[in-house]
Design a protein that fits this description.
The protein is mainly α and 91 residues long.
Length: 91
């Protein structure tokens, strides 16, 4: 009874190894090179946050002339949103 189980296990093992491609030395070297290049590129880039990338807008008048467009009150907070319209009457 043990023989058929071993044969089935060996057959399954052969099937799995035949369908799964082996990791080659070239694949490992390419992955290592890509990882190293990304680490070097990250070190060379200036360290800035997302807020530093955006320029601060300057408005000549109050830009929220349309008021609150909608809201979502909850027991411990309120979420409000509006439309930023520096010139709301201009088409």
């Amino acid at each position: 009874m043990k023989q058929p189980l071993e044969q089935r296990a060996n057959q399954l093992l052969r099937t799995l190894t035949a369908t799964r491609p082996a990791l080659s030395r070239r694949d490992v070297l390419q992955a290592a090179l890509a990882l190293s290049a990304s680490a070097v590129a990250q070190a060379l880039l200036p360290a800035r946050g997302f807020a530093a990338d955006a320029a601060m807008p300057r408005f000549t008048a109050y830009p929220f002339a349309l008021g609150v467009a909608s809201g979502y009150p909850q027991a411990d907070r309120v979420t409000l949103w509006t439309r930023l319209a520096p010139e709301p009457l201009r088409a």
